[in-house]
Amino acid sequence: MPDVLIASAEVSTPLTLVSEVGFDDLTDPALKRLAPGQDFKGQSGRILFETDPDGKVCRVFAGVGKTPADPLNARWLAARLPAGDYQLAEVPDGLDTGLFAHGWVEGAYLFDRYKARPERGRARLVVGNGDGIEAVRGVAAACLLVREMVDTPAQDMGPLQLETIAREIAESSGAALTVTTGDALIEENYPAIHAVGRAAEPGRAPRLIEIGWNLDKTELPLVALVGKGVVFDSGGLDIKGAAGMRHMKKDMGGAAHVLGLGRLIMQAGLKVRLVVLVAAVENAISGNAFRPGDILKTRKGLTIEVGNTDAEGRVVLSDALARAAEHTPDLTVDFATLTGAARVALGPDLPPYYTDDEDLAEAIRAACADRHDPAWRMPLWAGYREAVSAEIADVRNDAAEWSLAGSVTAALFLQRFAPETGSWVHLDVFAWNNRARPGWPMGGAAQGLRALFKVISDRFGR
Predict the structure, then answer these.
(1) Which of 10, 71, 296, 309 is found 20 to 30 A from 106 (Cα to Cα)?
(2) For residues 405-439, b (16+ Cβ closer than 10 Å) or e, as one string?
(3) Helices then strands (H, E): number in the chain?
(4) What is the DSSP letter of 399?
(5) In the predicted model, is pLDDT for residue 329 greater than 70?
(6) Distance between terminal CA atoms of the chain?
(7) Considering the entire predicted model, what is its pTM?
(8) Catalytic residues, which ones?
């Protein structure tokens, strides 16, 4: 999409953010003259245009409610303003201009790959050439990569396409790429990934994608990013209903997050070694699909009793996390669109995260607040561990009904396979915005990525 952050413009329209707080005390002549006729009092989402004698817009007043310093205001502004170049006339106290610029980019996002219409102009924000603007562009690009990947239908975003994107990222950063595909997964000891993905047609064969960067610099700490890449989830033999299947193109959202975050880490040149692992499969239905009651082997050596083929994400992540452990990481982060229970607990906009590292948990909490990137810590409650134990296998992929806490038990399942070195955190993301509004179209959403990038940057340095 076009770059909507520009260093300068020959002509730009001044943009003034107007709060409801103290509105009656404002003395701006144009505002005093125009506001009464349009019932404008700084209400959030309202726009007031001042025109010159020729009828051309010469100034814009944007209502931001009671929170003028909220950078998320930029999202709806970028979506609502007519095409043209704009520059903040004055910066409200406390406004983080970097976050405002990021919000502007996200608000201007439009997924129109499949629409037969000409490219339309965008509202562009004049931001100058400050040191931080390239960093803003990098973070925004990572978030837009997530959104575009999730928005793309499964017909054009299969395991091979995930591999292609990973390859492009690796090549652009001078990183190594290894891909294990199809029956080679059995030979290379990724049996759980193979079991879930083997029912797909040959062109959409399952694979384990691994990017390695800076691995020869053994003095640096190692960060492992692990992503669930289920490109479409039919539910397998425990098939979903139509409503449950409708948006399952987004079930590779975890993979999209780790690819976007991994690219961002490499572009920023963080002082880490990096491993990015994506378990890419399609949970399809055919004669060789894995079945309820099957006992699956895993890379770690533990066995999984399949209680429900629609709980496949944790199964493929078991092998990917076990592979991450072999690198003895200092920090492991996994992203997965794992459970509907997480949405029941916290809704679509607030993904839960799980870790037993108190310092890491606090760092994530603080980063979420600082970056306006919400997430909420949930407990790895030891009392529910028994719910993922099985009678005839080591673990079961459907927790016992008595436990009820589906997101918690899914995290406890993953903990059995997570690296024992360093710290581990699991994010159960929705990767989707299901409430369309200006600057927030229904579709793919990056959740927790900006916060985790800050945590990793702060913990290991640039």
Answers:
(1) 10
(2) bbbbbbbbbbbbbbbebbbbbbbbbbbbbeeeeeb
(3) 14, 19
(4) -
(5) yes
(6) 28
(7) 0.97
(8) 240, 314
